[in-house]
Design goal:
With 207 residues, the protein is mostly beta strands. It contains two helices and twelve strands, in the order ββββαββββαββββ. Helix content is 6%, strand content 41%. The protein has a domain of 83 residues: Translation factors (Elongation Factor Tu (Ef-tu), domain 3, Beta Barrel).
């Protein structure tokens, strides 16, 4: 099981010796602590729970504090679960960015940027309507949205204006371009979901 919790730092570029430029996203990955190891014999499935970012204990719920104190762990703000067998890990282990290597393929999960309430053109990439023939005030309207007598209503799932963004998004099969174990930094090729400072989950890509 390869996985970490981290924070998106921002985007930059890596320049190779031959001058080739690679756009990358920097992620502050770890250090993470193993807070629980679930087994099929006890919980019915195999997984590992990791914790990230030490915080004032007063900022945690009593149940979270008790869960961590029972395993002699520091107060951690973010807890995430990673499915899969991990016989090599035990509660209390400390994981750093060094669990990954350059060239590894990973999936990055995060919350996309919130855009608020948006119209159908921005939200669903609709085309605008003509600006002529009396349609001067309909250029960015969604157009016809229903039928007449039959069925006389809108179907569920009709693409219309509404809240956009703030969704859980996974970027699949991204290559790790740089690993800095001392500073707990990962650089992955391309973009990942979320704004700067967003908590992301990095896990090994499985085909």
């Amino acid at each position: 099981m390869k996985g970490l919790i981290g924070k998106k730092v921002g985007m930059t570029q890596l320049i190779a010796e031959d001058g080739k430029v690679t756009p990358v996203t920097l992620i502050e990955a770890g250090p993470c602590f193993v807070t629980q190891v679930r087994t099929p014999a006890k919980e019915g499935y195999a997984s590992v729970q990791l914790g990230f970012e030490e915080v004032n204990p007063k900022r945690l719920a009593a149940g979270e504090r008790g869960h961590l104190q029972a395993n002699n762990l520091p107060p951690l703000r973010h807890l995430r679960e990673f499915r899969g067998e991990a016989a090599e890990l035990k509660t209390g282990d400390r994981l750093t960015a060094a669990v990954f290597a350059v060239g590894d393929m990973v999936d990055v999960v995060g919350i996309s940027k919130g855009k608020g309430f948006q119209g159908a053109i921005k939200r669903h990439n609709f085309n605008r309507q003509p600006k002529s023939h009396g349609a001067s005030d309909r250029t960015r309207a969604p157009g016809s949205s229903g039928q007449t007598t039959t069925p006389g209503r809108l179907y569920k799932g009709k693409r219309m204006a509404g809240h956009m963004g703030s969704d859980r998004v996974t970027s699949l099969n991204i290559r790790v371009a740089l690993v800095d174990g001392e500073r707990n930094l990962l650089a992955v090729r391309g973009s990942v979901p979320g704004a700067k400072g967003t908590v992301v989950v990095i896990k090994e890509h499985r085909r």
